[in-house]
Amino acid sequence: MRVYVPLTLSGLAAAQKAGEVGPGPLTAYAVTPGLREWYVSDDIEELEYAALNRAASASLRLIAGRPEEIRRRVVVALDVPDGAAVADPDHVLDASSLGEVRIADVVALSKAAAVHVDADDAEKDVAAAAAALGAADLGDDDAQFTVDGAEDHELLWFGIQEIPGLIA
User: Fold this and answer.
1) pTM of the entire structure?
2) Whose CA is closest to 50, among 118, 103, 98?
3) Pairing relationship of beta strands 156-158 and 112-117 according to DSSP bridges
4) Which of 8, 23, 33, 142 is the most buried (most CB within 10 A)?
């Protein structure tokens, strides 16, 4: 099963150093029954893209809570055994947790299929979105527009062998 783990650049550096993503339990995003139902699509690529975007939003939340963090969203795509990622049945209908799964243990970084990271030119919009996130959560439409501005940036794809260059 492909899962998308939200991180920050410092989190990616720590994973590279340790050789694993963790510690567990990890929050990740995947194509779950709830995500399939919400997006009403049978196209696995569209659904995986939706799960990736959910993880990117979670990465933004990690960044918002860490003022020292570089303002670039990071998502690691990992392949885990089917039973390793479990959706919380109590949150199946909660729109804010669509596609969210838990992984009990650390995952070896060698299980990563790719790393998705914002380009340098996204930093200004990601910084603004991180600053506006609290107000957006409280229903401020202008703040939500700012948060959406970060989501307009597509995450770039990198192979795991490129991680050292990303964290340098």
Assistant:
1) 0.92
2) 98
3) antiparallel
4) 8
